Fold each of these.
Amino acid sequence: MEELRQEGKIRHIGFSFHDEYNVFQEIIQYRKWDFCQIQLNYMDTEEQAGLKGYQLAEELGIPMIVMEPVRGGALANFSEEMNSKFTALDEKASIASYALRYVAGLPNVKVILSGMSSMEQVKDNMKTFSPFIPLNERERMVIEETPQILQARVQNGCTGCGYCMPCPQGVNIPENFKVWNTYHMYQNYEAIRFAWAGIGKKSMANYCIQCKKCEEKCPQKIKISQDMPRVWADLNRKN
């Protein structure tokens, strides 16, 4: 890549990242990068590289590109109760605009990537940045409260450790619970539609036979055999 840059075929060398912070730390300190790209939004500040990764890149003077600012659309629409907290700030502003403005307010973020599926979304994003207005104190307070409210809706304490696996029936226990908890957090089926389908039909909760072998190994002492029917009831009725 350095040779190609000398030939004028590459202008900037950087990397895109999906892993844990310690891996990010190793890569970003390996050489002098021209930029880096991470997933970041106001819900996932401690996921993957997270805000720690952002701060490290800023300290090293490496410009940042951010993907998933609206968390795959999950931060674009909540329950009516949650949406009302944002519309009370400005009834003309979209819910997604606050997620974009949160990321854009970080000084070292130079480019924000947004997956758009309609002209309406394109126009809304253009409006959000034309001109860009940083979050005010009242808006920031609502954004800071949102993760706490959503986390309180989590149905069980599954950490995804995987000690319960493998399931004799082939059920992907951690993934079923991850999708289920995410669904209840956002109360929006669109936020988990693809993740639910991605589990695979033969790995879904309905294959659980309540043998309870997994419960013997669960460090969180989760009543997996009781929760699996609830997962299926909540998610399959919308499938």
Note: The longest strand covers residues 35-39.
Amino acid sequence: MWIADQWKEYEVLDTSKGEKLERWGDYLLIRPDPQVIWDLPKHHRGWKKPDAHYHRSTKGGGEWEFFSLPEQWDIHYRSLTFHLKPFSFKHTGLFPEQAVNWDWITQKIRQAGRPVKVLNLFAYTGGATLAAAKAGASVTHVDAAKGMVSWAKENAAASGLSDAPIRYLVDDCVKFVEREIRRGNTYDAIIMDPPSYGRGPKGEIWKLEDMIHPLIRLCAKVLSDDPCFFLINSYTTGLSPAVLTYMLSWELRYFNGITDAQDIGLRVASTGLVLPCGASARWEKQA
């Protein structure tokens, strides 16, 4: 398992009965987590006095209960700064477990010893985009949600990357890649974090289990002749690291590289154990 254990301003303090107690900078949040199926004693006193608590509804969805949480605050990871705010579906605008991939992305770009063009699909609020840009890459950041792209720009500005070579696009990721193939544009690295389920503007159903392999095959067509890496993140429960490895290895078999995939996770302070938070697959150029 790859563990995001280099945070200074974030930590999972405790977990019990379907929820996790987290420290986000100066604030304590309680949020539901489907992986927390255990019923352990709640050791941390923060359970009794959080700054905000997201309550899951038995009918689906849920709502926040606020005590002393501001509308927006910042959190830092290494030299990056992220704006956070609570919004629907329990999110804050950042997935802290992804820091383990940001570090890997940074390492691969710096080791390349040459200019690296990165394509970040389903790029959300830009964690991977900022890591890649800070490491010296030029990045094309694509997300279908205008609000998320605007948020990514704000994070870039807060991280001192306003003038970095980042191209922000509000677009359907699949259609964008199809157009890039027709244009003959290529990239040295691809990052993707596709959703488990969703609907397109015309009601099209997106189900990751059905779409992930065609998406990998499509994206392989915009890789340069000498690619650096290909990273896939998945929060779909049934999509195991072994399955991700198989698909990625097959579609990139003509390149000289190796694939590894693991669960990713966060250390829980109260127990020292690791909370699983999805899976990632990494293909990298073989030395």
Note: DSSP finds six helices and 17 strands in the chain.
Amino acid sequence: MKTVLTALALSGALFGTMACGRKESRPEAKELPRVAVSLVAQDAPEGGAWVAATLQSTRTAMIATRMAAQVRRVPVQEGQRVAAGTLLVALGDEDLQGQLKAAETALATVEAHHRRIQALQAQKASTPSELEQAQAQVAQAQAGVSALKANLAYTQIRAPFAGVVQSRKVNEGDFVGPGMPLVELVGEGEQELVATLSETEGKTLKTGAKVRFEVEGVQGEAQVTALAPGGDAYSHKGTLRARVLSPKGLRQGTFARILVPGAKQEGLTVPRSALVVRGELNGVFVAKDDHAELRWISLGEGSGEAVTVRSGLRPGDRVIAQPAGLQDGQPIAVAAGGVTHGK
């Protein structure tokens, strides 16, 4: 037994000596790069506020029908230019044609009867009341024929003005009813911008004022033609219409923005460089509790390097201005004048 304990003691001493001879390896700390942080604020861009608008023609019509019938023919396509009076949609009219023939026959009958009563009246062989009754029958039959001819005209739907077919809603064989949209027609010529303004934004404008706008990278000038105060019961916003002065021939339906001079930009603003775009989503990284938190946001309009945020952020949030390389939830170190993060 004594020999065994001595061997164990020697073994333990030898192990301790070997352990003391090894150096403990520890990972070396890496220096973290610094990135800037921007506080979310409600600063207004210089020169006014940008508001979203839509560019459209001053003449736009959604062509519908007042008849219940089957579509016989649609001789136009999207993007096709048409002259005033061009046939857009032809509806089936077989029933109306039959009714018209019957009405015309009835009219011919009462007109013949009216002529006989007139002849008898000349011979003092009929009473004045019989002649009045025959005249009333003729008038009633004529009204029936006119109404059927008017209904027949509605089966041939034509362009009320020259323009471009924006969209066709029906195809041959479809059954349509009264008020159902068939073709959307957009007139060529003058264009206008349509936007919604808050009461505060509308105070800086008046009818006849000229405003700047941007559309697809092109800058232009427009003149305010209508300015309705906040009439919407929910948003309390009104409608602005501005006729485009220059340039001409812009693409219809394009998203645009109007600069309202003197107005304050509503909403929070962040640097454009802070945006993280993934598909159709927009987001920013926020420094929170020593971590980078990805926030998805809804954007408004911007001015220069400032972008308006409609939702997703609060005043005072610390947005990372240069988020390249960051991951959601990644630990970061906040330092004076910036944020440091690990790769």
Note: The chain has four helices and 24 strands.
